[in-house]
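Data availability (excerpt). The following record was deposited with the supplementary files.
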Amino acid sequence: MAIIWRSTFTAADGTNVTTITPEVGSAMLTVPGVFPLQVTADRARANTGDTFSICQTPTLGANANYVVRAIARQITSASFGWKVYARALVASNVGYELTYEPGFLRLRANDGSGWVVLGTTTSFTGSNGVDYTVELVCNGNQISAAINGTTLLGPFTNTLVSVANAAALETAEYTGNQATAGWHWDSLEVDTIGGGGGTQARSRTSTNAALLTPLTRNRLAGV
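Predicted structure:
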């Protein structure tokens, strides 16, 4: 078992993430009707064309037991939050969704028939200039979320989505602020359970800490 998808979003500023060749796997895909993530300082952030952006990996194969692991950084402010998806088909409102807005985290599931909240917590608030390792874990019917190795939500027993589908990232910020504010993604990887990937391909010099909730405009929530 091993890392089956990884990108450190290394590209020129303004590059759409969907044009980057990842270190492992194939390029990320756009979601119909939604702007893709763009790059600033080798991090993925909301597109200058809109307040929020989403990108999805290609289908991940037959093994639905994996960890979606991303490093997120709050830059100078965070008017909105972010989302990490697993076993997802974003355009079809299918998958497990880990959401963060300031002071609030949530984990929920959708098989295409409507969102089911698995759990929420107010145990985390991000700080400027700090990197946080976010993990959304799908291991059989056990679904959980962790920040910096500490499980904050779950494991919850849930069987709504049992196929691998894809992983995805979402982030948002006010138009005009995307490159200088809000949350930026340093890297993303998908590690099959037992793969032992453990850490991102690249880490920043900063103190890691913790992360989840709906964004003001949310593709999967239908808002």
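Summary of structural features: Residues 195-223 have pLDDT under 50 and may be disordered.
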